[in-house]
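Handout for the seminar on molecular recognition.
Each group receives one record of this type.
Step one: identify the two inputs.
Step two: read the structure output and locate the region that could contact OAK.
Step three: write two sentences on what you found, then compare them with the reference statements printed after the record.
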Amino acid sequence: MALTVSEFERAYKEEVLQLFAESWQTASLDQQFAALASLVKRYSASDWSQTKQAVDHNNEKQIYYFSIEFLPGRMLATNLLNLGILTTVERAFKEMGLNFKRVLGMEVDPGLGNGGLGRLASSFLDAMASIGINGNGNGLRYQTGLFKQDFLNGYQVELPDDWLRNGYVWETRKIERAVVVRFGGEVNLLPSADGRLLAQYRHTENVLAVPYDIPQIGYRNGHVNTMRLWQAEPPAMGQPLTVAQREEISAISQSLYPDDSTEAGRRLRLRQEYFLVSAGLQSIVRHYRKTHQDFTQFAQTVAVHINDTHPAMAIPELMRLLLDEVRLDWDSAWAITVQVMSYTNHTLLQEALETWSIDLFAPLLPRIYQIIQEIDHRFRSAYHDADPALIDSIAPLGHNMVRMAYLAVWGSHAVNGVAALHTRLLEESVLSGWYQLVPERFSNQTNGITLRRWVQLANRPLAKLLDKTIGSDWRRSPLAIEALQPFADQPKFLHKLAAAKLKNKRSLAAYVKRTVGLSIATDAMFDVQIKRLHAYKRQLLHLLRIIDQYQTLKAGLAGGPKYVHIFAAKAAPGYYYAKEIIKAINATADLINHDPEVNQQLQVAFLPNYSVSLAERIIAAADVSEQISLAGKEASGTSNMKLMATGAVTLATMDGANIEIYDAVGAANMMTFGLSSEQVLQHQRNFDYSARDLFERDPRIHRIVSALIDGTIPGIEVEGQDIYQSLIQYNDEYFVLADLKAYLDAGARLDELYLRPEAWGKMVVANLAASGRFSSDLTVAGYARDIWHVTPENQVNRHEL
Ligand code: OAK
């Protein structure tokens, strides 16, 4: 949009006055933030309304991205950037003598997600708006997020994440669009006038689903989509409810991933999942009916994407609506449902494949269960001449369970994995039966990231340098960054690149000092591992390398570059082993950071409360990106992409999207090591891996691992023992020791390169130049083409900006 500095200043001052009856000079930082955000929301309002109108008017297809998690991060800077007024507003704030950065820092991160799945969902919403696809998010408005992480004596402490306490400026409550979601009760199928059975519900528990809409502003294209979050409330009318009943209702949108170790917790999760899909689909169907007489056009105008299996009940729920409310026959309803639905799998971990016991499921969702039974029955009949053992092993119902992934594949026209290796492994193992049956449904769509957020906003020094060096096309067309490659040979440019990195390191160092009181050396190599804490991601392997470095220094054998190891990771509250690793890393950090014999060369910082905002600070400052999961376990990873796209060199196993990064940058520009997924599988099949043998035969491994139990690291008597036993006694399920030697060698090769700034700079440039292909704009364009069958407007301006 066109806006001058003085126009903005005038509007902003007026906004502060109107909202708070305060002058702009006396407004608090919170008020400054609220006024600016509210103004931005106003600036986007007419585009938002026009986008919605155009969709209806032109009968355009809409994508609905159903996800139990979203992780949008702060939105103010993104919205300013996407509206095209970021620099204008910055200038105005400077003129007014206000601190723009601190105002941005007042925004809370929405507590709507937990990890990669949620962040990907948000990056797709940003991408859909930015390439001009009508794509909406459908999620839950959790009152409290996962948790706020702190450390007490090195242990993870979980504090409530009360992110909505001061309200959320970007949302609008739409009570007039509320719908009712029904649970429990009885369903009777009664004959009706149209000769078909009619489902009649009695004694149901009715929950009001109230939508809150948040604008998702496209990048300088006038396109504004909607992220809709549902809140569960007691209905205003009907039977009076007891306090306990009301609490049961609000619990549905109270918190993300309630503890599922109890029956009550599992029931609550199931209620959340159904609430999400039922509310979303009812509103979609209702909206469609406003402009259409019949459902012949439904699949041409609606696509529903199921983000992992949490929303897979969208399949029986759409069937329910089409059968019971629209009154279509089964075959027509099923044909529409399959055309509408598509499903992405995000994990190969067996334990993460969702199944629900029928004993829990059927009483809570009686009609949905009936429909799943019919789906299962018809699936089995359709393949009556196929191998019965195969059909039995992949049917939606089996072993007294509803098997969500199988239901999702059967009810969708398209299924995809999130990196090439992941998709192949889905086809060969987790979903192999399905791949035999319906191979044409499978495709790969490698994940992507929002380069606007990670480079344009979170790495301003690099962004500026790119503009000066290759012009600003890369901001709109991600692949244009390839133009940087020739600069790999220009020492002057490499110098500037290193200077930009140093600036980012200084900002991060100031933050580390402020938050954890540690002064980190900015002339050190920043070696970063940031992701959820999980055994398969192998933060433990990284820790063992740090112990090796410590022991080397203590033995007086220095020589490599200075190191600052940076971790950030939350462990799931009930994941005891992951919490032990956190404690072990913190204890090692404590030992190293306080030892004057080593702390000039080696430091370790574990930053609490990993979040999108913290990632923005860390990533821009990183030199090395640790992507060291056991091959075959990480579906894709996306921090690997973010880190390479802001100039870090990747130290990685051949897992997930690391392989595609390797293909993009070439062997000379990435350091890979370790077992391949095939080799891991071989060992697992042959039972020929012995961690104890390695431990006993290799003195270096022996020395490193022994540090966990011999008192070298104070304060980890219990944790050290447990971790040691997981490696030696329980034979190291994640092949940490199998990969340790190769990892240390790869690290040493990286050290040598880091000590040669020109060689290092070349690698950085190669990574930057290859990063464009990991833009989620391109990923989403792939989904649009292969799965949703829509054509992006592709940065065609609705209005001249
Ligand atoms: C979360 C809950 C259930 C199943 C999967 C997840 C999840 O977060 N998976 C992660 O998704 C990311 C986005 O596709 C991938 O990059 C990660 O590899 C994967 O672990």
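Reference statements: The CA atoms of residues 282 and 472 lie 44 Å apart. The mean pLDDT is 96.
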